[in-house]
Predict the structure.
Amino acid sequence: MAHSKLSFPVQAAVDCELCEGHIKVDWNSRTCPANLCEKCKVVHVSRTHEMESRDGHKKHQDQGNQEDRTVRNDPQLLTSPNIGALQLKDRTVKNVPLYPPTPLDVKVIKTFTAGVRGTVTEMRAISSTKVWCSHKGDTLMMLYDINGQHIHSLSLDFKIQGFVINNIGNFIVCDLSNYSIKQVTADGYVSTLCSTSPWKPWGICLNHKQQPVVCIGESLVVYSSDCQTKLQEFKHDQHGKPLFVWPHIVAMNGETSYCVADPRGYKVVTIDVEGRLRWTYSGEPGQKRFKPYNICCDSFMHVLVAETYHNKVHLLDEEGKFIMYITDNDSIQHPLGLVVSDDGYLWIGEDHVLKKVHVIKYLKHI
């Protein structure tokens, strides 16, 4: 993500963006539009984030572990209401918070009943108001809008486990019937990209290079964009220990990490793009039988985990630290399908006979 450099003349009167009241700015960020006092500069600096003094003579850079990210999920940053425009490679997204907003404003915006056969276990957003839904092991995918209006369906001749949608609008689907990865165009044309035999393909995501990343057997496999070449396979950590028992669902977090739900290992496992173990999460202290069945990430690199049979969705920061439960009661039965839409709303599909889909606001300032 590219950020334009901001500069101000020394004589300009600029207030610190994180402090309340008029606090003199001592530092300008060289990598994002942040103008900060001495105290807030220390909080804001990320591991690759360089700050420049207002007179241009002093510099500060955190010397911690060098990772490609711009802002920490620091609790002190989670209260900032600052809004700006972020420059992406091919478009500008306006009115996006410059700092992660406070994840303390949970509210159900919409609830509707999906018409999928079985329960709502697989979900992918194509916009802020439209989501594709399916049931694991079924052959039908259905597109719904936020009001529960059925828009379109795709009926396939194989059992769907997981699917993603690439940047040209084609579905990349895990085929449980034939142990393969298939491509499905918007008009329903199906082609086989590769075989995963003798293993079933489970979860799938696309990395920032549009390469499929697939849970297969006890491994996480990265394919070339056309699935003709196996580029990487992650099975053991940097110390030779197994990473996974059953990697079930995978999500890309930013451009640097893969987050994997491993229900038989009773944990979430996060590795970097080279396969090095970053962290694991096994639920809150004292919790028994933490079984994560789905996982997704938002644009602030939060990790959302569906603990289906305890009726909980955990919200973690990018380092795997627990922030809060999005839901932890019986108001949502067996949350399983998870996806965050373009506008930052969380869609939850129930693994329950009622087949409900809930649209939830969980971040302030969105």
